[in-house]
């Protein structure tokens, strides 16, 4: 056996450069951990001549994927090229050539994770993807090893840094959504086209990956119900402050009696909830286990070096397995059929903001509507509006089924005294008076 | 190979009962994870006849340690008996009989961890102790696997639930130290003799274990500088609120240029610090890595089932290693000589509260004292006291060496205009105005 491990990189962007930098700077620590040197042998790039921040000899670079994927000297392929189809083909080719694979690609794993894991097992290869969820936060190992003996019941995640940054700025500095988004773009926290982030699609991919691992079942991306933050207004955040609530884009994954729900939606959290204190671009995953109770994993969700740390933790795990001769054995195969909850099985608290005609008996029409649906109130806030003889009403309900809350929403919209239902959000946690 | 793994338990108290319960309730999940049944074979107790909350047949119980330690059928010994000497002898005997050991015993590991790890390696046995720090929080695996490729620079922990509960109650409900302690005792969060908790000794043991793992060096328990919370007053907590600071009992472990400091002390945290939001009996460990930046692991620090979850995660790891034939290989041996920082190499911000004669020029004597020591102020708060023509002054300094802050403290005490230095605490984090 040669006394070093060779790595082939697919991609040399933000994360790829971080990986090269970590291997260079932490070589001595790596040797101590895995007992041998870890070397980068070749790197697939689109343009060898391109100016790069990172210093690396051109001889390492290639535009031909086969020079990485077919090189018998390369033990581990690190995929940080992004995108879905090309990355998928590269990874399948790598696994078929008996190379272990580490990837940071959440889109790919969310869509094709189960297929790729099967391929990895068939070839006695490791396929690890710690960096695909919450960047530097070691949440996947936390779930599959740290909490291995427990039964996870509920998982809530702030797994998108862009939207958390925007909501923090709206909440703390009173910025509008548009201004906060612009600021995030200027700082490089949001892309020119922010759709995948602000509409919750990026978070949905991570939640699918997390839910699979937590519940041992094959959650598909389309099982995740998604709504984004582009309609969230500063007014709602201000009301939240009065009610002891903080708005976050939360990925939810719950399981009861082997029936599950997975969603991503703007959610009001009680200020006492551990996730309510997670600010700016930080990520965190809150895990509720039957035995352990409440735990939370917090850290940077993106960035070159944090994400590279997660990639390298996977590389270290692969090399340890190589030296022990046990690759391809730590994959957790799904063991349950996934059964999704129906709306009458999904329970939660809800926040409604509505404009009401400011006339005698108007409010009692609202209360009788909620009474009839058997929905009780946790908090109510009424403010007169200067214009149009309207009152603004905020209602926070106790826990009700999603079916009831949807019915309430429809009936409120039909009620003549209700001028408009301005907004409707989920609420999590207990507000102490 | 027999198709199940046998466990011998030393102790059937809070944690032991949790372990028995988890093995019973999660048997199916365990089988799926490790590929075979996990059975409790025998349990060492002091009194077989004692009434217990947990249902377990008397045939499992024994008062003879050798029935666990010498039974060739037992593969893994789980030590949850507590105490130091007896537990140490049992564990050595178990390792010499080639049994893997899982322990929740922080006192033992803090004092004899390195010796026991050596013994484990000699016998090709695993020795795991996840449950010894922060109960259900998988922090040891987080450090040694999740952040394996990074270089940890700083670690701050709320690793004692009792003191965190007391400080939370003092801060939020304005209770005195004595009343809050009484409440904690009534709720079972504090022991009848609370010394080990409130004086920081329990936290010091955990910090020694964490610092060893994070910095790859043999930190000894006596390297940890300790002060407790029994002198913390509600007045200081109230001033903290005005200054944007929260008091926590913080275990600190820093390393710069291979020189380290480890301490446990009541510390004012900026409210924006992730640890500042950790309330009641919860624990959390904040880890700052060179590449990953800020991460935090949060969860229950004690309790039967949370701690049992950590014990069982270790058992799962041992069984996986057994099936792969790789036990005794995942121990991280220390690789650096430990060098402790001297006081002039330790830097931090400081909070001073003092009573000053309310006379012309008094305050300028304070400022010139600090000027001469080259200490600048971050925040100052002056309040007249109704009695004795005194003023109460709070000073928060910028970062200075511990040597300078100690000198300032001594000189303040000697200054005739200073009636009394009431309190002095460390401060961490940036307070934003």
Automatic annotation (TrEMBL), chains A, B:
Q: Where is the ACT domain?
A: 351-432
Q: Which residues are recorded as binding L-homoserine? A: 191
Catalytic reaction annotation: L-homoserine + NADP(+) = L-aspartate 4-semialdehyde + NADPH + H(+)
Please give the biological process terms from Gene Ontology that the record holds.
Answer: methionine biosynthetic process; threonine biosynthetic process
Q: Which GO molecular function, any one, fits this protein according to its record? A: metal ion binding
- The EC number(s) given in the record are 1.1.1.3
Pathway(s) it belongs to: Amino-acid biosynthesis; L-threonine biosynthesis; L-threonine from L-aspartate: step 3/5; Amino-acid biosynthesis; L-methionine biosynthesis via de novo pathway; L-homoserine from L-aspartate: step 3/3
Q: Which NCBIfam families match?
A: PRK06349.1 (NF004976)
* Protein name per Swiss-Prot or TrEMBL: Homoserine dehydrogenase
Recorded source organism is Lederbergia lenta (Bacillus lentus)
């Amino acid at each position: 056996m040669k006394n070093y491990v060779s790595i082939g990189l697919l991609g040399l962007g933000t994360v790829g450069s971080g990986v090269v930098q970590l291997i260079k700077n932490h070589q001595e620590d790596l040797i101590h951990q895995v007992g041998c040197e870890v070397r980068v042998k070749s790197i697939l790039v689109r343009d060898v001549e391109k100016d790069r921040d990172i210093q690396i000899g051109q001889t390492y670079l290639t535009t031909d994927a086969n020079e990485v994927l077919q090189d018998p000297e390369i033990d581990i392929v690190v995929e940080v090229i992004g995108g879905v189809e090309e990355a998928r083909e590269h990874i399948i080719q790598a696994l078929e050539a008996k190379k272990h694979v580490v990837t940071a690609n959440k889109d790919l794993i969310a869509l094709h994770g189960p297929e790729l894991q099967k391929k990895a097992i068939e070839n006695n290869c490791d396929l690890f993807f710690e960096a695909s969820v919450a960047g530097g936060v070691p949440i996947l190992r936390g779930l599959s090893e740290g909490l291995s003996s427990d039964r996870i019941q509920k998982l809530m995640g702030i797994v998108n840094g862009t939207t958390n940054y925007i909501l923090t700025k709206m909440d703390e500095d009173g910025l509008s959504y548009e201004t906060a988004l612009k600021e995030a773009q200027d700082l490089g926290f949001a892309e020119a086209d922010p759709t995948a982030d602000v509409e919750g699609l990026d978070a949905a991919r991570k939640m699918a990956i997390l839910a699979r691992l937590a519940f041992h079942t094959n959650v598909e991306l389309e099982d995740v119900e998604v709504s984004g933050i582009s309609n969230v207004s500063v007014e709602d955040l201000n009301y939240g402050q009065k009610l002891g609530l903080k708005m976050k884009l939360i990925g939810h994954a719950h399981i009861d009696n082997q029936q599950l729900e997975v969603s991503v939606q703007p959610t009001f959290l009680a200020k006492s909830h551990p996730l309510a204190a997670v600010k700016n671009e930080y990520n965190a995953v809150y895990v509720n286990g039957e035995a352990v109770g409440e735990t939370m994993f917090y850290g940077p969700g993106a960035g070159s070096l944090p994400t590279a740390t997660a990639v390298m933790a996977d590389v270290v795990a692969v090399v340890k397995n190589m030296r022990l001769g046990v690759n391809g054995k730590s994959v957790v195969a799904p063991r349950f059929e996934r059964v999704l909850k129906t709306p009458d099985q999904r329970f939660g608290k809800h926040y409604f903001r509505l404009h009401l005609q400011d006339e005698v008996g108007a409010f009692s029409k609202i209360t009788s509507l909620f009474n009839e649906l058997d929905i009780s109130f946790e908090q109510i806030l009424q403010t007169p509006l200067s214009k149009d003889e309207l009152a603004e009403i905020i209602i926070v309900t106790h826990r009700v089924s999603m079916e009831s809350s949807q019915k309430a929403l429809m009936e409120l919209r039909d009620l003549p005294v209700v001028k408009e239902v301005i907004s409707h959000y989920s609420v999590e946690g207990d507000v102490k008076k």
